[in-house]
TrEMBL record:
It holds the Pfam family NT5C. GO terms for molecular function: 5'-nucleotidase activity. Transmembrane segments: none annotated. Gene3D superfamilies: Deoxyribonucleotidase, domain 2 (1.10.40.40), HAD superfamily/HAD-like (3.40.50.1000). The gene is NT5C. One of its GO terms (biological process) is deoxyribonucleotide catabolic process. This is 5', 3'-nucleotidase, cytosolic. It comes from Macaca mulatta (Rhesus macaque). InterPro entries: 5'(3')-deoxyribonucleotidase (IPR010708), HAD-like_sf (IPR036412), HAD_sf (IPR023214). The active site is at 10 (nucleophile), 12 (proton donor).
Length: 192
């Protein structure tokens, strides 16, 4: 029997629209302050761009009570085919008081209780075993210099301007042909 393909899917910015939620929360808290429109976002950490506007403004929302729960899901369908194991591999915020529980609630509400059992919370995704990692962060670093998984960059407002090297693949959205990426990786995994 062939080994099942293991796909790790990030949550914020891939399944949940973290950037739009962050902007909504910021505009609600600071309606008179300048903000960075989504189409002008650059770089993974929003606080770096906001500090350039005004250093004393805190960018937040997902770390506050109900912040994570307010995030809208990106339109699916999400990966899930026979011969594929899908896990949600997500990093909680450093100020995790509300974040962890709300991640679980979000997954249960938007993906169903069966996916609650498939959540992997980690600060270091490089140590998690998988064949593919679909993530909006363009550079993933950790203890493992060469993780076992192939990183597929999920297009988000903060990374859409990046030009990828020919060896790196991008998923434009969940409407893009993610099945083709899974099938190509499945073929490579079966040859190993």
């Amino acid at each position: 029997m062939a080994r099942r393909l293991r796909v790790l899917v990030d949550m914020d910015g891939v399944l949940a629209d973290f950037e739009a939620g962050l902007l909504r929360g910021f505009r609600r808290r600071f309606p008179e302050e300048p903000h960075v429109p989504l189409e002008q976002r650059r770089g993974f950490l929003a606080r770096e761009q906001y500090r350039a506007l005004r250093p004393d403004l805190a960018v937040g929302g997902a770390g506050s009570p109900h912040g994570q729960g307010r995030l809208a899901p990106f339109p699916g369908p999400y990966p899930g085919t026979r011969g594929t194991e899908v896990f949600i591999c997500t990093s909680p915020l450093l100020k995790y008081d509300h974040c962890v529980g709300e991640k679980y609630r979000w997954v249960e509400q938007h993906l169903g209780p069966q996916f609650v059992e498939r959540i992997i919370l980690t600060r270091d995704k490089t140590v998690v075993l998988g064949d593919l990692l679909i993530d909006d962060k363009d550079t993933i670093r950790g203890d493992e210099e060469t993780p076992r998984w192939e990183h597929i960059l999920f297009t988000c407002c903060h990374n859409r301007h990046l030009v990828l090297p020919p060896t790196k693949r991008r998923l434009l959205s969940w409407s893009d042909n993610w099945r083709e990426i899974l099938d190509s990786k499945r073929g490579a995994a079966q040859r190993e």
